[in-house]
UniProtKB/TrEMBL annotation, chain A:
Similarity-based family: Belongs to the ATPase B chain family.
Compositionally biased tracts (Polar residues): 11-20
Signal peptide stretch: none
Name of this chain's protein: ATP synthase subunit b
Source organism (scientific name): Hoeflea alexandrii
From TrEMBL, chain B:
NCBIfam families in alphabetical order: ATP_synt_6_or_A, PRK05815.2-4
Gene that produces this protein: atpB
Protein name: ATP synthase subunit a
Chain's role: Key component of the proton channel; it plays a direct role in the translocation of protons across the membrane.
Location in the cell: Cell membrane; Membrane
PROSITE patterns with a match to the protein in the record: ATPASE_A
Length: 194, 249
């Protein structure tokens, strides 16, 4: 203070004397002592500090600190709880996705099985039809061959008869004589090497 | 003496009380102690009244100051130090609010009186000593015997440790007191320059700009100091409490 006050006094020359008295100020209250070192105020300050700070400490330790601590803890718990909940929901969602995938795979398998069965069935039906058609055709062919053979046999048999008739006619015309049918047939048979 | 930089520290009686020859008057200092407690406790009480899960702005200020002191104490004295949390928190809030209230013009600064800061410092050191002896018994004295010191130097080192321990309440209280006192005197002196230069006419008003700028700058600085000194007081409290909790370091 003794450094500061003269500096102030210099800055304010018109009120120099005032400042001088001010520097040793508080004559009225403090008895000319620098206020913070005025021991006559110590008792009062200590008493009121003890009262006010004591009250403040009580308020802090009994009300404020537990309250703010509680708020912070509650928030921490709540966040942890929310995170747990979120994890649980995520797990649930994962499970649902897995189940869905599983079902999808099953359905796909089933679908391909059904398609396979249908294809097999169609193939079998086609095969059966083909076989029956073939068999029918074979039968028809066999019938046709049979009838051809019959016709051929008949035709061949007719050839002999025709030949006999022709030979009989030829002999009748050329030789003028009649031959029996039996002779002619024997002659044709020997001629044709039978 | 409105322009006298010292008069702002003058203690004035409001309600004179005298008991057994002791002057226990309710003074302007007492009034601002009450105001400090009312403002600090009122703010903390009202802003946390809703117990909001999502804090309002004011509630988050209260929560921030709580967590600020809590992390300070945890870093300084470990998790065992948390039992002193109400005390450290009270000290920090009380000093901080007292300092900040002192920044209002015409307001009295409670912490600009050595006896107040000394009482707070003695509370801290008293707690350290009492808790240290209660918890560790005579092992608490290991605080003064650092390990790994050669035997020859031991008496010297112990002496230094004891002196440094004894000077703690003094340094703790004087630091806060001197900072607040010097800051307020400086502010007042520069503000006084503005007024006295202003009364010197046109030239004086022109030059009065300089101390005015200084006053504005110092006001900003003083707000920083008001917070910083409360922080320093609380941090040192944490460190001293750490000695009481773990003396054999």
């Amino acid at each position: 203070m003794f450094v500061v006050t003269p500096a102030y006094a210099e800055s304010n020359p018109t009120e120099g004397t005032h400042s001088e008295t001010g520097a040793h100020g508080g004559d009225a209250a403090g008895g000319g002592v620098f206020p913070p070192f005025d021991s006559s105020t110590f008792a009062s300050q200590l008493l009121w500090l003890a009262i006010t700070f004591g009250l403040f400490y009580l308020l802090m330790s009994k009300v404020i600190v537990p309250r703010i601590g509680g708020i912070l803890e509650h928030r921490r718990d709540r966040i942890a709880q929310d995170l747990d909940e979120a994890n649980r929901l995520k797990e649930e969602a994962d499970n649902a996705i897995a189940a869905y995938e599983q079902e999808l795979a099953d359905a796909r398998k089933k679908a391909s099985a059904i398609a396979e069965t249908a294809r097999e069935k169609a193939k079998a039906a086609a095969e059966a039809e083909r076989v029956s058609t073939e068999a029918e055709l074979n039968t028809k062919m066999a019938d046709a061959e049979k009838s051809i053979a019959a016709i051929k046999t008949k035709a061949l048999a007719d050839v002999d008869t025709i030949a006999e008739d022709a030979a009989t006619d030829l002999v009748k015309h050329l030789l003028g004589g009649a031959v029996t049918k039996t002779e002619v047939a024997a002659a044709i048979r020997s001629a044709s090497g039978k | 003496m409105a322009n006298d930089p010292i008069s702002q520290f003058q203690i004035k009686n409001i309600v004179p009380i005298e008991i057994g020859g002791l002057d226990l008057s309710f003074t302007n200092s007492s009034l601002f102690m009450v105001a400090t407690v009312a403002v600090a406790a009122g703010f903390l009480f009202l802003t946390t009244a809703n117990r909001g899960l999502v804090p309002s702005r004011l509630q988050s200020i209260s929560e921030m100051s709580y967590e600020f002191v809590a992390s300070m104490l945890r870093d300084g004295a470990g998790s065992q130090g948390m039992r002193f949390f109400p005390m450290v928190f009270s000290l920090f809030m009380f000093v901080l609010v007292a300092n900040l209230l002192g920044m209002f013009p015409y307001f009295f600064t409670v912490t600009s009186h050595l006896i107040v800061t000394f009482a707070l410092a003695m509370l801290v050191i008293g707690t350290v000593v009492v808790y240290g002896f209660w918890k560790h018994g005579l092992h608490f004295l290991q605080l003064f015997v650092p390990s790994g010191v050669p035997g020859v130097l031991m008496p010297l080192v112990v002496m230094i440790e004891v002196i440094s321990f004894l000077s703690r309440p003094i340094s703790l209280s004087v630091r806060l007191f001197a900072n607040m006192l010097a800051g307020h005197i400086t502010l007042k002196v520069f503000a006084g320059f503005v007024v006295s230069l202003g009364s010197l006419g046109a030239l004086g008003i022109g030059t009065a700009i300089l101390p005015l700028i200084m006053t504005v700058a110092l006001t900003g600085l003083e707000f920083l100091v008001a917070f910083l000194q409360a922080y320093v007081f609380a941090v040192l409290t944490c460190m001293y409490l750490n000695d009481a909790l773990h003396p054999g370091h």
